[in-house]
Write a structure and sequence with these properties.
Blueprint lengths: L11 H6 L2 E3 L8 H8 L5 E4 L7 H17 L7 E4 L1 E3 L2 E2 L13 H6 L3 H17 L4 E2 L24 H17 L3 E7 L5 E2 L9 E2 L3 H6 L2 H9 L5 E4 L3 E4 L2 E3 L7 H10 L5 E4 L5 H6 L2 H11 L4 E3 L3 H16 L5 H18 L2 H5 L3 H23 L1 E5 L6 H4 L6 E6 L8 H6 L11 H4 L12 H15 L3 E6 L6 H9 L2 E6 L6 H19 L5 E6 L14 E4 L5 H11 L11 H10 L8 E2 L2 H18 L23 E8 L6 E10 L2 E9 L8 H14 L6 E4 L10 E2 L4 H9 L8 E8 L11 H7 L3 E5 L6 H10 L2 H11 L7 E7 L5 E8 L23 E9 L6 H18 L4 E8 L3 H7 L2 E11 L9
Helix pairs in contact: 5-6, 5-15, 6-8, 11-12, 15-22, 19-22, 27-30
Amino acid sequence: MDPELDPLWQHLDWAIGQMLIMGWDGTEVTPQIRNLIEQHHLGSILLTAKNLKSAQQTARLVQELQTIAHRAGHPQPLLIAVDQENGGVNSLYDEDYICQFPSAMGQAAAGNAELAYKVAKATATEVSAVGVNLILGPVLDVLTNARYQPLGVRATGDDPQEVSQYGIAAMNGYKDAGVATCGKHFPSYGNLDFLGSSLDIPIITQTLEELSLSSLVPFRNAIATGKLDAMFVGGCGITNPSMSVNHACLSDQVVDDLLRNELGFQGVAISECLEMEGLRNEIGVKTGTVMAVEAGCDLVMLCRAYDVQLEAISGLKLGVENELLTKERIYTSLKRVLRLKKSCTSWPKALNPPGINLLSKIHPSHLALSLKAYEDSISVIRDTEKLLPLTNSMHQEEELLLLTPLVRPLPASSMSKALVEAKSKSDTPTLHDKWAHRDQRSIMSGEGVFREMGRSLARARHGKLLHTSYTANGVRPVHENLINRASCIIIVTADANRNLYQAGFTKHVSMMCSMLRASGQKKSLIVVAVSSPYDFAMDKSIGTYICTFDFTETAMAALVRALCGKFKLQGTLPGTLRKSRKVQKSRQHWLVEAYNRDRDAGGLDDLLQALARASAPAHQFLQTTGAHTFELFNPNIEEAHFVVRNSSTQALYGFCATYFVQGTGIIGAIFVDPSKRNVSIGRSLHRRALRGLAQKRGIKRIQLGMSFPGVFLGIPTDDNASLRQWFSNGGWDLQFPRRLANMSITPLSSWSAPEGLLQCIQRAGISFDLIHGPDNAESVLAHVRTHANPEVFELYRFALQEVNNKTCGVVRAKGHAESLLGTVIICSPGSSLAGFIPALHSPPAEPDEMIGGIVAPVMVPATAQGSLVLQGLALMGLRQNKAHKAVRSVLSWVLDEAVEPMLAMGFDVVQAFEEFTNSPENWQDLA
């Protein structure tokens, strides 16, 4: 028996029960599921759409399940898992309390990873309110064969780095809402072959090398964050020269070797549901369950059949008796599962979920987020004839024709819920369909969703709308008559690549419209793909093409608003399709010259003022930035600045500042005249800057963002996602940012320290002193050299050189035995350091405002007292600023994890940035 474990677990029945995750059909607790929890100690439950009717019913159901487990003596609560991916895959739908958000690909189309984080956090907060503690997500699959894969819009796209970025954003959102995460579907469902298997399962035919370069990248990156709690291992086969596996989740080559040993995953491995027909027929559930655990899975999934679930339990017991499974192997999985439970639940939390009370409070803000997410995601891929919005291309009295396919509704829709009881048994899904949503499938006609969309569109444009459906029967006389009447036709397609009749119908109507236009009639055509954007992405004969990425009622309502011009459409195609479109644009190549102070300083001042006028309010500090800000004249920092200019007028069109210090090359700023954007000026500057840095002798890393000078500490987080995408297209890996924020307190005169803060600092034995000049600075500089970037070290050296007027000093925080815990620079109003940190300058609108600075806190990392030390340093700084009559105190900068303690002190965030550091190898082609 492992000494770390509760003695209860020496009963192997208890341990085995914790290694299974099971579900059932029905919206109430059945005797069977009760028996599994009470008698077989089942530790994890999978809830699907078949269990969940509403938020209120879900909360009651989960509470009942947890109460049964508690009364049965379970030491820890049940894991309660759901698929809640948004888009078309939601186990829980309740239009009164649970918000609908776009699919993963739709969120990526919005081009904003921060939005994806907020959506994930909102989703997890909602399901957590009803007692769910594990989301089976995010989807980390890369659609390496995007057009014909059943995952479709459930995946982010076909670019491994973009999938990583959005997957990690979603994972962080789930975690910050207190819900555990489970990446899926390892090793990949992004390129499945449905033709080559003798079993009733698809297979992966890529080699391990090919997988490593594409499909495995998001899994590797998610694991590297240390925040991925579990991994769902798929049931697909793998056939390549180095591996032949019938079911990935039953193979130690996949789970133990690839997932654990090669990728370093230490969390819980969850198997695909072992009730799948191919596995049951070939191996049998008893043997399959043992094989899954032998392979390295910690939780074995059995979705609904009670007799099969009992068979799996007896299989594990028999595996131990036959010595196929050792107790050590059982306890290894047990400890992983218990560690996961401890991270996401507890008995007080499990038995008392906040339920409807919380959902009612957060619903309005989540609805607003849903509205923004859908509006940002809708993408116009082409509009060559300028048909959008409809108000620009149609008169109100003209007739609009809507043609929609007969398709199944998405489970995340009220219509699907209303009709699920009356479902028909006539449909026989293909193998491909089974892998598209499996348990999430609904088989009712989706006509009602589109009918409501038609009514909404007619109301919104205050005009006549004709609407009919189309099927595999093609263009019928009824369609021809309506096409002849209408001046504009909207055709909706849903996965036309897999439903080829839709592609054929659309092409036929397109040809008809062309012929009618040639005869002088007005016949506009708009095609809307309401699922996969790949339907007509590359077909230029479709001149106006829009994508919505799902067809829930929420998505269709947003589409109506988009067609009627209610908001600006800004979504883009996912992954490589987006990049290929950008590459196709004609690009100018601009001459880039070295910055010359005498020639260019005036032009740079003018450029900065133009930027200040065009910037968001949070960046108005550009008004106080001048050409002098970027020149450090520091013997320890090499500077090389570049410009694109009009040699005839001397106007600067763009400027880029670069620095090199102790092996680190830095882009400290890159600006383009707002009136000269999208003509490759920034790209030309960026390439020249990177080429210069990559050629530096001893270069170890290249950094985007700089705190000395502190104009831009990185990519501003409140800018739109196009800026991040711009840098990503320029070769930057933007997965792991270092988040920094400038904060301030104003008015400083009325500020007072939080009650009890000083006493807490004193009890912790933390003391502070203030030093000026280099005489006593050895310990400070040694501390900063160890714990901060090289430019921060130079910032401290600069501050400590101000000896005569003492406008700058350094506060030291000390612990027991005079050990240094942290430092911060204090600036009086008017400090020469303010010349390099615009946030410390008074804005032109308030020239007499005195601003004090608290600059560059440097802490010993991972100490228990870290927040208290930082608060103490800030407190000392605020006292100094007050003593020097400062009206406002600016804290530049704090790391993301330290923002909360500063907010508690009364600081507000003014700007937030993301600093990135990459290897020079990213741009080795430029060196």
